[in-house]
Amino acid sequence: MGFPGAKPIDSEAVLELECDVLVPAALENQITLENALRVNARIVAEAANGPTTPGADAILHKKGVLVIPDILANAGGVTVSYFEWVQDLQELFWDVDEVHRKLDKVMGKAFSDVYACAQKYSVDMRTGAYILAIDRVAKATESRGIWP
Predict the structure, then answer these.
(1) Which end is more exposed in the chain, N or C (fewer Cβ atoms within 10 Å of the end residue's Cβ)?
(2) Which of 7, 43, 6, 47 is nearest to 24 (CA)?
(3) Strand partners, 22
């Protein structure tokens, strides 16, 4: 706002601008049944928690918009926190380049796994992430057995 040559636009209209990647990053429930058809992005990368309602998610999927769900898009911070914990336990000190390499590897695999699962079952990325998570919990429970 106030940038020379820029025109003010309200927050609702921003969601409907033509763009390659839309990153709703502040509030939940911003992409809804009311505005999902007017979203003009090829990709929605959810940086906020729950910015897309379930009904809007279905509309975006039908429109061919790739929605990178918040549980995947936001996982980098949690992953780096885990890296810090590992370093503290082992008295290791990784430089920022090493952290970035490890994060790229983990997040790249996570995205690939979720995308492959979504493609396999012909579902959206959020559903693919849920299927993958439930499958991993089931396999871990099966391999470890049920404890009394």
Answers:
(1) C
(2) 47
(3) 44
pLDDT of residue 146: 72
Answer yes or no: are the C-beta atoms of 82 and 89 closer than 8 Å: no
Q: Domains, the chain, ranges and CATH?
A: 11-68 (3.40.50.720), 93-148 (no CATH)
Q: How many helices (H) and strands (E) does the chain have?
A: 6, 3
State both tokens at 29: 């429930």
Q: What are phi and psi of 73, to 5 degrees?
A: -65, -30
User: Do residues 50 and 73 lie in contact, with contact meaning Cβ atoms separated by under 8 Å?
Assistant: no
CB of 39 within 8 A of CB of 65?
Answer: yes
pTM of the model: 0.86
What are the pLDDT digits (tens) for 18-75? Answer: 999 999 999 999 999 999 999 999 999 999 999 999 999 999 999 999 999 999 999 9
Angle of helix 125-144 relative to helix 96-121, nearest 10 degrees, comes to 100
